[in-house]
Amino acid sequence: MPPLSELVLPLGMSVAAGLVGTVAVMRRMTLASDAISHVALPGVGIALLFHLNPLLGGLAALFAGTLLIWALERTTHLPTDAIIGVVFSAALAIGSMLTPGEELVEALFGSTEPPGRAETLLGLAAAALVILAVRRAESRLVISLVSADLARTAGINVSRVNLLFLLAFAVTVALGLRFLGVLLMGSLIIIPAATAKHVAGSLRAMRVCSVAIAMAAVLLGSLAAPALGVEAGPLTIAVAAAMFGMGLVLRRPG
Q1: pTM of the entire structure?
Q2: Torsion sign across C-alpha atoms 25, 27, 31, 35
Q3: Nearest of 52, 56, 38 to residue 93 by alpha carbon
Q4: Which residues, at least 6 apart from 249, have a Cβ–Cβ distance to it below 8 Å?
Q5: Which CATH superfamily is 4-182 part of?
Q6: Which of 9, 40, 107, 206 could form a disulfide with 123 if both were Cys (CB 3.0 to 4.6 A apart)?
Q7: Are 233 and 220 a contacting pair, CB within 8 Å?
Q8: Which residues of 125-136 are buried (b: 16+ CB within 10 A; e: fewer)?
Q9: pLDDT tens across 138-180, in order?
């Protein structure tokens, strides 16, 4: 069983994932959001080639990819999910070629190596920043979702709000790269929020439920993995998927 100190950062990351996932589900960006996490792979590969911290490489690639997606969305007026699909495919192909073979599995599915104290503190600060940013921008995000024209009439810079959300998503993905890797991290953002949408009767309840499910999946996956002899990352997502199945059974009327 991992010590409690090793669970602090994953739990902080899960709170951010639950909040960001709520917005992603409301914006119907679930599949596109999952693809964004794969953009980190080229950065991870380059960092490993130059013997740098792969998390920093992944974060840099996520920021670059986010800005590219945002710029293409503004200039081409193509749907966001289509742009993300193109960027994701290119990033996954390039990252697979750049990442050394022995490191590729770890980059894709996460590592069991615990974070250091400095990484934990920086990660918690980043998670707190994401939580604060999403909570403060939530009303603008919701109005932009209902109607972009209405949002502009209300004085909301829709393009800036979209960029804020994409950056918050990128930081959240970076926080989970060590634990879940680029293939699984998007799932922790999507599955709890999708489950909450089934069982919650209001936006506030959906937000609370999404965070609770993400935290429970991370906690149960981390604690049960050593006893079951499996990796914590895949087990965490399996637990989240099981909760989604339970949510279908318990789906609220109407």
Answers
A1: 0.83
A2: negative
A3: 38
A4: none
A5: ABC transporter involved in vitamin B12 uptake, BtuC (1.10.3470.10)
A6: 9
A7: no
A8: ebbeebbebbee
A9: 888 778 776 777 778 878 888 788 888 888 888 998 888 888 8
